[in-house]
């Protein structure tokens, strides 16, 4: 797991490691990009939630996993092929 790698050079991972070492609670949430969340809107929601609950929120927006992207590309390619075959 990359978060446990002490030699990681990714700044986001280093930030998470720092929080973990200071005994902070971290909640990770996965949001698909296509379900209507916009980065700015979601960040605003997190900030409001942090203010009302008295917690600190650090938001990272990660890219889709490679497996998901491959699946989407495969599905789109199959759809194009099927359209060409039918016509």
From TrEMBL:
<dbReference type="GO" id="GO:0003676">
    <property type="term" value="F:nucleic acid binding"/>
</dbReference>
<dbReference type="InterPro" id="IPR036397">
    <property type="entry name" value="RNaseH_sf"/>
</dbReference>
<dbReference type="InterPro" id="IPR012337">
    <property type="entry name" value="RNaseH-like_sf"/>
</dbReference>
<protein>
    <submittedName>
        <fullName>Uncharacterized protein</fullName>
    </submittedName>
</protein>
């Amino acid at each position: 797991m990359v978060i446990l790698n002490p030699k990681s050079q990714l700044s986001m991972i280093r930030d998470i490691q720092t929080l973990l070492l200071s005994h902070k609670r971290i909640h990770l949430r996965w949001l698909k990009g296509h379900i209507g969340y916009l980065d700015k809107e979601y960040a605003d929601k997190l900030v409001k939630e942090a203010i009302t609950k008295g917690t600190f929120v650090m938001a990272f927006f990660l890219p889709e996993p490679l497996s998901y992207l491959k699946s989407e590309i495969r599905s789109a390619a199959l759809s194009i092929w099927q359209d060409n075959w039918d016509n």
